[in-house]
Design a protein that fits this description.
With 204 residues, this protein is α+β, with helices and mostly antiparallel strands. The protein is built from 7 helices and 9 strands; from the N terminus they run ααββββαββααααβββ.
Length: 204
Amino acid sequence: MITAGTSFGSDVDDIDTLVADPLALLVQWLPPHDSELRPLAALSTIGRDGIPSLRHVLVSDRDATGLYFHTDSGSEKVAELAANPVAAMSVAWPELGRQVTVRGIVERTSRAAAADIYRRRSRYLQLLAWLNTHDNARLSAYDRRHLWAEFDEAHPVLDPPERWAGFRLRPLTLTFWRGDMLGQSVRQQYTLTDGRWSGRILAG
């Protein structure tokens, strides 16, 4: 059975009161990096054609400075972030009636920090970081699986590939949405201005 406390993080007791530190609430809402149910987040960047670009990424970790995700440095999203280092991420927990949306500045993490995250990844995701290439995608399903099995057997221990990269989204706005099966849903929206957070309550 999935429980909020073990799989999805937890909430404050008084959900109607604005918090002094919304980053601490963000950390509290999200599960730790070693949770089996680390959330997928919708990541929105600005496409190089000026149109918003959206995909889902695994939230690698979270702390009092923001959210972390990791990807191939040759991906389209990395090119978009190089051109315009801003993004939004949104994570939803339908089972709990919660959603958080983060907007802010994206910065690249150190190679050592990215490698540490890689070592925590499942064997499948470690292999995927090496084999998820455009060339391999053009192979047949049979050939892709054969290549995967051969590579897996030949590399019992893996370090991250050179193209493995980590990013941190530093929040400028945080929006916490809470549903209510018996009444109106509401949002708490926090904005960072001159190093200080201010909040307001909005309709859901």
